[in-house]
Amino acid sequence: MRNFVYQNTTKIIFGKGTEAEVGEYTKKHGSKVLLHYGGGSIKKYGTYDKVVESLNKAGIEFVELGGVKANPRLDLVKEGIEIIEKEDIDFILAVGGGSVIDSAKAIAVGHYYDGDVWDFFEGKEKIKKALPIGTVLTIPAAGSESSSSCVITKMDGQLKRSINTNLIRPRFAIMNPQITYTLPDYQTAAGAADIMAHIMERYFTNVDNVELTDRLCESALKTIITNTPKVLENNEDYNARAEIMWTGSIAHNNLLDTGRIGDWASHGIEHELSGIYDVAHGAGLAVIFPAWMDYVYQHDLERFAQFAVRVWDVDPDFKDLEWTAEQGIKKLKEFFVSIAMPLTLKELDIPADRLEEMAEKAVQNGPQGNFVKLDKEDVLNIYKSVLE
Amino acid sequence: MRNFVYQNTTKIIFGKGTEAEVGEYTKKHGSKVLLHYGGGSIKKYGTYDKVVESLNKAGIEFVELGGVKANPRLDLVKEGIEIIEKEDIDFILAVGGGSVIDSAKAIAVGHYYDGDVWDFFEGKEKIKKALPIGTVLTIPAAGSESSSSCVITKMDGQLKRSINTNLIRPRFAIMNPQITYTLPDYQTAAGAADIMAHIMERYFTNVDNVELTDRLCESALKTIITNTPKVLENNEDYNARAEIMWTGSIAHNNLLDTGRIGDWASHGIEHELSGIYDVAHGAGLAVIFPAWMDYVYQHDLERFAQFAVRVWDVDPDFKDLEWTAEQGIKKLKEFFVSIAMPLTLKELDIPADRLEEMAEKAVQNGPQGNFVKLDKEDVLNIYKSVLE
């Protein structure tokens, strides 16, 4: 186990009806609020009305900025930064999924910086301060509601880049599983794939003696594997929705990587896909993660065998760890198929013509991954292995 | 799953040599410090010197108060409160195990209260404010380093009572597993029993549909079960020490009871033992917890069967859940015996003559337990069942 520092200060307010408390929680942190959200779904299904009612009840003034898209864009972030300045706003309330929260985080750090906020995403500038933010989560997937990370897409150049700092952890995250009843099945499944990917990125490590966090990761994976089919069967299964929602936060709040170093190649490789083709991040990960596994599993058969046995209940063949390891990857692919997630670029309508360019971009700041270092050729091989 | 609010703000600084950073972390929160500790072991093994060196290096003025005993006493707490006032101290640094940290927590809340600090422990007064505290942990057991709870013993009346508030969570917890190398085996084992008890108190719940937290509890238990024998075999097994130390915090930082209601009867029943006989809390729990299980397991055979199968790898007999459940309790007892923990009051040198009085005190604020409500008669039966 490696030395580590861990702190997560986000207050989680979890359960039925909790969105009605958003006004009271917001009041503790701000007086004038940017209400940030995405498209029409929060209005269509009543979440918007409940949030506005709660804000009004608490006497909180707010300015709205909707229109966040999946794979949130730098342009809207800049618009947000301008509004904050013009309207003298001191708190951002993000009502939505990871895209809305990430957009809010980028606005929060951009507010205190005179230059182009994109500088942070290119590593040109260090983040020193951020406006406080809070969130009412509507999609369990990205884990952004209590994470220290944020991913933004710059359309000019089709670049998807991230920042990571404790300064952007939300002050509070309100999580009502009932709000997720109306998610389309595809989004539920892509969310599950995203959550699993967050756990697996941490799981595949070269750090030895990480038993507790290994087991916590396995627990979180099993919970998603059990509950996702239940939710796809019955969209209003409160308990299964609740398990997925809470696991989605645990998966990405940094507890699971205490003392270890995660891999993160699959995320990097996938970001190039969703940067150009605007596919759902979770769906992209369902394609890339098993492909990455096929490409690297020989690097540590024991770890992949453990994954197979403990997560997928594979009976180990101790004389054939390679076979054992392969069964785990196979089970993961079967699971993704069972929840209607893609396993090929073709299913995402991604053609072969820009693979080279994506591989190039994926390694432009150095090789991808910590478990196994991948150069451009490796990334290209992984893309090619799942073309169709 | 029940609605819940969860926040744990303690910063964990974990790993080799981290005690050298205590001065820098302390500096962020206070300018004049009460250095609080127990007996001679921190001086004997060099931790005291390292902490003092780090405080001096950071230019921090401090006043010392040593002498905290296992099952920390109200008298010393009061002495601490007086010193704080007299010396104008603004931060408490607890170097030790749960007893030292709990003593510091009680001083921290007592400082802002004009009346008798014991009022908080009797529920007569609500805690509104506390001095900030930090800790260098030397014994993994109580989980007090990032918990919201604190247990103090009042010798007059031999009462052991607790308080619980987020206000007393330490600002930081420095945890170097190397510091635990010198723990006597008995203390290591009692610590393991205490950690397991914290998890099991949360595990045995009547709340349905708590899959993620069930699995997280099982993970934490398995980690203690694997690593405690390793440490008893080799006191300087860093990795095993690290697993136990980090699990000890996770076990009691409230993550594992998100969405559920724990039982806590065993803790209540044990407190009467250690209140009067001053036994190690973990050793007392090793006696009481299996006895409690024997007394209540019929209440939910499915949960006890799950405990047996998932934690102890018992092969379930689905046609005989009672047998299956019993195997788990049997394995727990065997484990405690294997790490030289007692299973009877006799082994703790506790005679039969005050059982009635202890049972009476255990229920003086109402029945014990949430999983099964236990009245005085039940508590007495549990004591009697493990007399010898």
Describe the structure concisely for a colleague.
The structure is a homodimer of 388-residue chains. Chain A is α/β, with parallel strands linked by helices and 388 residues long.
Structural account:
The structure is a homodimer of 388-residue chains. Chain A is an alpha/beta fold and 388 residues long. Chain A folds into two domains: 11-178, Rossmann fold (3-Layer(aba) Sandwich), CATH 3.40.50; 183-385, Dehydroquinate synthase-like, alpha domain (Up-down Bundle). Helix content of chain A is 47%, strand content 13%. In chain A, the strands form two sheets. Chain A has a six-stranded parallel β-sheet with strand order 1-8-5-4-2-3, sandwiched between helices. In chain A, strand 6 (149-154) and strand 7 form a beta hairpin. The radius of gyration of chain A is 20 Å and the shape is globular. The model of chain A has no long low-confidence stretch (mean pLDDT 97). At the A-B interface, strand 1, helix 8 and helix 9 of A face strand 1, helix 8 and helix 9 of B.
